[in-house]
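Troubleshooting: if your tokenizer reports a length mismatch, compare your output against this known-good record of 547 residues.
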Amino acid sequence: MRVAFRNKQSFYKNVKCYLENTTLHGLKYLAEDKITVTERVFFGLSFVLVVTLSSFFISNIYGKWSASPIIVTLSAKQTMDTDIPFPAITICNLNQARKSKVQSIGKSSSNFSLILSLCNQESNDLNVTYVGTWKNFKAILTKVAQPCNEMLLYCSFGSRIENCSSIFRTILTDDGLCCTFNALDPKYLFMNYSEDNLLRSHEDEEYTAIDWTPDKGYGKNLPVKFSPRTSGGIGKNMGLTVILNASSDEYYCSKTNSAGFKFLVHNPANLPKISNYGILLAAGREAFIPVYPIYEDAGPKIYSHKQAVRRCLFSDEGNLTYYRSYSRENCRYECEARLLQKICSCVLYYLPRSDPTIRICGPNDNLCTRRLLMKIESTNDSLACDGCLPGCFELSYRTGLSTSPMIAGTFGNSNGGYPEGIFNSTTGIRDVSIVHFFYTTNTFRSTTKSEIIGLTEFLSNTGGILSLFMGFSIFSVIEIFYYATLRPYCVARTNKKSRIVSQEDIKLDETPPIDGEIKMRANINCEKQIFDFLKSCGIEHRNRASK
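Known-good structure output:
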């Protein structure tokens, strides 16, 4: 009972000492002995009110910090066009299959069923039940589609004439076989790359294929000539110029009601979706297409935030099974393939295939595939691939378009600077289009995703409020720690030593003295009595025993 009373008394004494010496405003009045109880209550309630207000404002700051920590701002520095690749440009003939090749295929054959699937047409023959695989579909696709060397009559990039077959690669899209320029090499695009991914052989002996992603960019020690290429310069002459041949006499089926081409300017690391997002260009026209890059990067600090908070993914996230790096477009491709395989028990010919033996959707599956794709594109449907978040690093391109009809006989003897015979009677002006893709400036301003309130800003705002209301600082925390732990421990240890010394003194007094000690004590008592007597008489005396 006595020990508990002593501990309680020591606690109250320690609290009072803290209140008297703390740097927090207002608490010292609670320990002041000269003020009344009413005054103590006033200062106590005032301190509680101050703590409540500061807690309210700090909770607002924390809510803003946790709910919307990311802000998108313009970059402080301009980005050069040579820091990013020139866009990948995919061009498709609106004709899905050449008439001369389709006519040689019997309508009752399995290959014709695949042609109907390519043309997105339904069969009137209910007996068409052929189950096609990618191997079969690849063979018939490469047979009937117009090859790139027939569609591309002339190519130049950076004011230099190029071999179209070297700089353009055949690519599979939702609009059939198309030709793409400056796209990422398939071995850097697909997770498990094999020669089966190639539709037609392609070799570019002059330019070395390298890996590139929007977040990592170009690496160091690049070869002299590499692909994806950077910009050749600004203006029409320094961009990409192509002359296209529509071959309108070979039209068999098309997803539109016109003759010409579709093109899409896109990120080199993404596969294009031509059918929904491609830009239409009629044959017999010349087009000028200025390109404006849009680059979004991210600060390294946002990586620590949860994906649901930052609402974007880095290239090494996303857990894609078919593509090597994450992008929203690649994620949607895989999402569509999974849903089609699950609901329609097949996969459309242009979508990724986890297994080469998976059935390619045929004409009898058109009803199922159309409905499913419409639901996926709808933002209000549960089947929409909403889990495919944007990339934290994204590169896209905005384009303009101006066209003018071409008129025969206006090129003069020089053919407008193009090779002789490019506009002959075989192709004809009505089947030919000239397209120019180019930058209008060599610098642009990118945007950056960064923390709107980082840990440093949060501590600064919180510390400012606490300092304004209470005079709180980091040293206030040290004081609380000291008075709550270290000081009670030191006081308890000191008291314990004092008790031990007192007990030893008591034991020493109770011990019987020996003869020498008795004489010494007697002398001391005698001298003490003499000293007290002289002092009472007012006579100064120096105690010799103290020398």
